[in-house]
Design brief:
Layout: H1 9-13, H2 19-33, H3 41-53, H4 85-97, H5 104-121, H6 130-149, H7 155-167, H8 179-196, H9 206-209, H10 211-219, H11 223-233, H12 236-245, H13 250-258
Helix pairs in contact: 3-5, 4-6, 6-8, 8-11, 10-11, 12-13
């Protein structure tokens, strides 16, 4: 199954019109991912290629091939091609829930494959269906923070995931990352971080978690990216975090850093 994961029955069945078939596919996929084996990078990229399209009408290209899809591929039937909002929302929740069943060995590689896929396919998303992918991205950012929060904000997990975010959707210098994806992740970043820390137990490594935004604000050569990152860092929830958690000093440190002189970059 590993070599043909894109063509696995449960991937195609996620696009079924009838709910029983979709539910069965979800169960099979969760079982597949929750196993003890460690997935390779290529396997996860292939899986996400299949999940992205969820369509049986067109063969899914090999992940390493140059994109040469039919121009009407986004008109193909499938989960993402459906215009039924409730079906879309249910499946987004289900797909985001896959993160919860993953072992620590597979979780971050799975999330990295997700971000690689979103960045690669972003410019080909039909504008009329963009909202569906924005919801998926929001749900996955939320799921990733939740996964780490449920493991007591493990320093190693936080460090590794911040590395993924700063090299992919929130990279200040990677020209292959579409700015539209950057903007969306910046705009929802504090929202989803806030949801993941609702207990306010005082253990969240806030300074470490806002590193991607700080780097964008300082190092991005695109003015709009810098502006949005700065606005996100000015969110009052960051300022209030210290008081709500009992005062660990991190929010104050964020405020102090924001007052420092920063490079203006290039104004387009």
């Amino acid at each position: 199954m590993s070599s043909d994961v894109q063509q696995a029955p449960f991937v195609k069945q996620l696009a079924a019109n009838d709910r029983p078939t979709r539910d069965k596919a979800v169960t099979s996929l969760r079982t597949y991912l929750s196993g003890s084996r460690t997935f390779s990078e290529l396997e996860l990229l292939k899986l996400w290629k299949g999940l992205f399209f969820c369509s049986s009408s067109y063969p899914i290209p090999h992940v390493c091939q140059k994109r040469t899809y039919p121009t009407d591929i986004f008109a193909a039937p499938g989960m993402w091609m459906s215009d039924r909002p409730r079906t879309q929302q249910r499946l987004v929740v289900v797909l985001a829930g896959l993160v919860d069943v993953l072992s620590i060995e597979n979780a971050l590689p799975f999330l990295e494959a997700f971000w690689v896929t979103m960045a690669r396919e972003w410019n080909g998303i039909d504008v009329l269906r963009m909202d569906k992918f924005l919801l998926l991205i929001r749900s996955y950012l939320s799921a990733s923070f939740r996964y780490i929060a449920n493991r007591a904000w493990s320093s190693s997990l936080v460090e590794r995931y911040i590395g993924i975010l700063t090299s992919l959707p929130l990279s200040p210098s990677n020209g292959a990352i579409p700015n539209g994806l950057r903007y969306h992740v910046i705009d929802i970043y504090i929202d989803e971080l806030d949801k993941a820390d609702t207990p306010r137990g005082g253990s969240i490594p806030l300074l470490q978690l806002v590193i991607p935004l700080k780097r964008l604000e300082k190092d991005s050569k695109t003015k709009e990216v810098r502006v949005r990152a700065k606005e996100a860092l000015a969110d009052r929830r960051l300022v209030d975090w210290e008081a709500r958690e009992g005062g660990n000093g991190e929010s104050s440190a964020i405020e102090e850093e924001e007052g420092e002189e920063e490079w203006g970059g290039i104004d387009e």
